[in-house]
Design brief:
51% helix, 8 helices, alpha+beta, Glutathione S-transferase Yfyf (Class Pi), Chain A, domain 2, 2 domains, 4-stranded mixed sheet, Glutaredoxin
Length: 206
């Protein structure tokens, strides 16, 4: 039985396609009409009470949250290739920057865009400019988060940077731009992007 992904091309599930293509596992897409609120229907809510995409079903297991899905797929289907082993010293760096994306980059960008007034010591994402400097430090002088080795951390961390730059929410600094260009050259990303584009066209969303 193949993996199933509750999906829409204009949701975070679009990025999950890249993770699936990188691991190379067979998968089926369950296209969910988020424009009409289908993600809040009983079929999905029984699996993911948040009623959000992406939601992945692998046999009897349900995994939600884009970063968690990507890390799960790497551990389950590409250990040692896309995910450092549990006893690999690079495992800490891998997890650090994978989780930095949803827990620091996303809320820092949202706080800046929304004009939230928060104390740096109280907000887990700190300050926007500190977030940018920290994100640059993760890849400065390196091809990927783990140096010369691509990993699922790049799908999560790099995918977040790409999305934020595409929507003008993060400045396309030279470090970020060069990094995303390297990621865009990956065949798995190109397959996922082509499928997302084709699905947008199929659904009449272009």
């Amino acid at each position: 039985m193949s993996v199933q992904l509750y999906y829409h091309p204009y949701s975070r599930a679009a990025g999950t396609l890249w993770a699936l293509e990188e691991v190379g596992v067979a998968y089926d897409l369950i296209v969910t009409d988020i424009m009409n609120g289908a993600q809040k229907g009983p079929d999905l809510v029984t699996k993911n009470p948040m009623g959000k995409l992406p939601t992945l079903v692998d046999g009897d297991l349900v995994v939600s949250e884009a970063a968690a899905i990507a890390l799960y797929l790497a551990d389950r289907y590409a250990p040692g290739r896309l995910a450092p082993a549990l006893d690999d010293p690079q495992r800490g760096t891998y997890l650090r920057w994978s989780l930095f994306a949803p827990s620091v980059i996303e809320p820092a960008v949202m706080a800046k865009a929304s004009g939230w007034e928060v104390k740096e010591v109280s907000a887990g994402w700190g300050r926007y400019d500190t977030m940018i400097a920290s994100a640059e430090s993760a890849i400065a002088g390196k091809d990927f988060v783990l140096g010369g080795t691509f990993s699922m951390a790049d799908v999560v961390f790099g995918g977040t940077l790409r999305f934020m730059m595409d929507f003008k929410q993060i400045e396309p600094t030279p470090i970020f731009t060069a990094y995303v260009e390297r990621l865009n050259a990956r065949p798995a990303y190109q397959r996922a992007d082509a499928r997302n584009q084709a699905m947008r066209k199929q659904l009449g969303l272009q």
